[in-house]
Design brief:
Elements lengths: L2 H8 L3 H32 L6 H49 L5 H27 L10
Helix pairs in contact: 2-3, 3-4
Length: 142
């Protein structure tokens, strides 16, 4: 796939991407019906009019789209589950690190806890909204 196509698709939102994919596959479907139907009708039925081929083709495309929709649903669910699991692991790690500072003496403990609170606030309030916009900030990891 050319780079300009992947760049263009990467800049689309989820809704725009869904519309593009639906339009693409609908165009392929209609093009296939318009190009294949006349040829197949002549091959199978000669000059007799028949809609059996259209019914068969529509049923086949419906089956393909149903399977595609099912696979997309499973992939979306798996991606969502992976994101939720990753967030849970990161939250658990932050909590464990935050509570492990209790063993340090008081001035250092307070500084460390303040640093972790500041880091967590930065990640939640600054980095996640920036990632949603497609921007990667460099402040939280440094």
């Amino acid at each position: 796939m050319p780079d300009w196509i992947s760049d263009w698709l990467g800049r689309l939102s989820a809704g725009q991407l869904a519309v593009v994919f639906c339009a693409f596959f609908m165009a392929i479907t209609w093009l296939g019906i318009l190009l294949v139907h006349p040829v197949m009708r002549r091959v199978l039925h000669g000059n007799e009019p028949s809609n059996e081929l259209i019914i068969h083709i529509a049923g086949s495309f419906g089956l393909v789209y149903a399977v595609l929709l099912g696979l997309l649903t499973v992939a979306t669910f798996q991606n969502t589950k992976d994101v939720v699991d990753g967030i849970g692991r990161e939250a658990s790690a932050l909590s464990a690190i935050y509570h492990s500072t209790d063993g340090y003496p008081d001035p250092l403990r307070g500084e460390l806890k303040a640093e972790w609170r500041e880091h967590t606030h930065y990640v939640i309030e600054m980095e996640w909204p920036a990632h949603r916009r497609g921007v990667v900030l460099e402040g939280g990891e440094h």
